[in-house]
Amino acid sequence: MEMLLNKFISNSSMEFTSSNNAKERDEVEILRAQIKEAFGNRRGIAVILNYYYRLIDLLMDLKEIEQAKVELQYCIDVTVDFLGENHISMFKLREKLALIHFYNNNMIEALKEVHNMYFMAYNLVEAHDDRFPLVKDCIYSINYVSFYIDFFYGVFSNSEMKNSLFKLYTNGTELSSQLTLTSLASQFPEWRRYEMAERFLYDKLKKEENVLAKLTLTSYKSDTKAEIRKQKDSIFEIIKRVAQLFESERRIKLAILQYEKALTKAISFYGKNSIQVGEVLSPLSSLCNLAEKYEQGLSYAKRACVLLNAIPDKLNKKNPEYEVKLAKALITIGEIHSNAAKNLPPDDIQPYIDAEKYISAGMNIVDKHYGRDNPVWILAAYSLASNYDLLCSCLQEQAMNDKVGQMGTENIKQEQQELDNIQIELSEENQKKLDEWREKANNLFELIREVIEMSPSKYLINIPLTKGSVEVEEIMGEDTRMFRQTTLNSFPPNPTTINELYLSSREIHLTGSVDSGIQHLQNAMRLFEQQYGNEYLFEREFASTELANLFNHSGNIDEAMSLLEASLQRVEKALGNESKLYQEVSHAYKNISSLKGLSKDEKEERFQKLLEKYDKEMDQAKHEVAKTNQQVSQTLKPSSSSGSSIITNNKSKKKKKK
Length: 658
Known about the structure:
Keywords: Repeat, TPR repeat. InterPro entries: TPR-like_helical_dom_sf. With 658 residues, the protein is mostly helical. It has 29 helices and no strands. It has helices spanning 2-12, 22-40, 45-61, 65-83, 88-103, 107-127, 132-152, 158-169, 181-187, 190-216, 222-249, 252-270, 275-290, 294-309, 313-318, 321-340, 350-370, 375-407, 409-414, 428-454, 470-476, 480-487, 495-509, 514-532, 538-553, 557-575, 580-593, 600-635, 640-657. The N and C termini lie far apart (74 Å).
């Protein structure tokens, strides 16, 4: 107690630096005297801490940041000694300390404190389920601070961040005892942060390019060369941040465009064999894979592996991120082999075998540096499990083709309606392979579930439902704000929920277990309800429409309509009834409701009409694309990327209408 009292007295001797409020200053001195008296008379830790809470609040209201930080740190030490690390009082104290670090422009320390808050909240949730709102607050705060660090730190100067960026990022809100990072985050939602970052990064890029242009005119001067190199580094970093911004939004086309610009700058500034080229090629190859530009993506990924593998071990130890980029490139090569092989004959399974080797190698590197409870490893595990399922599908399809070949052409015509009921038999060797691959896929999905459930960071693992969707980009068109409002959220879904969606997709599309897929979708909808109540969430509406579609095909039209009605209400409340997502869901609702009361023959007739309409629209679209290509070829020589983009768009539209 004497040691604590001496420490308190040394802290209380600090002078005010900026406060002019005499009344509040007097109250601070009174509280100091009360704390001293409470220590001396041993009045109990609860009384002392209450005095301290009031003192810290006053200092925050007076904008005495440094003094408030000192008192907070001391109060945290006292609370840990008497009440323990996981007491709810510690959560509130760390929340205030994180806010003070944030307003003091010490973002790294703020992020550390928010992570400390999260693990405290996680421990409380493990003991008491009613503490989950604390976890939610932490995730809001972590995303809020992390975004500022990811896209502004290292690009803008301290003065730029303090004078303009920070004020805009906090909506001009001043520090006070009633403020929290969670309340700040709610004032500045995710879609607005991306909008702001894009604008500021582009403005900064223009300024830096103008500075470089002026410096280039005097490049003959020896002291200018260092400035030019610094300016090139700055320009390259900004373009990379813009590309990462679009990639994190999962806007494939824009992200590819920006990474290609970054690649051009990297080759121009640092040389074609530089590390910078390798670190750009790794994410660019992954995006090309998503855009179905497989040949281009494979070329980029292989080149990235060559450049990143040549980095010395000493540099890799200092910055393991380079080796992780190598791992991502290896995973991309495997995914491209697996995705591109879907158009090959079923007996050509070598690409899937190669995919297994590349993805496994990349996963091992990620595991070495980051462990398994992170999105990179988990998404790669999904890809590897899917690859095993596709190998099983190849064996089954090959056996089916052999069976059909034995039946002969005439028998096929006679038994066309019974083809779905044909019993196929695999050879002993193929059956053994199928059992082995299916078991590996099952084990991977079980391992993913265990990794998620056992990880203390499980609520922080942001697993996207999709790495990117060209289809969603096309639906949204040029309306960038609506795209962000529709797809982004400050509190991502629990990875357990997303895992249920991946499981449902696997059961429906790869193993053919529709009933099991419906069960997983229903589990996901229940988890969405528990975490979000009646809030809008893009992933939730996807699951809702997918489940409604399955109910419709199974004849449960009433259940399908009920799901879509609830989805329409959420979308309308969040985005309005003029939004494109609302129109898409409304269109699905009208199509399903129009089938109610129809006989089986009437439903088939309606489907046939829709199919004819679709074929007509596809022919028209092909004609328009051919006409556009002819016009472009007369004026410009088309690049490989633009040609691939046109092909990708057509494929995306075809998938959408199906």
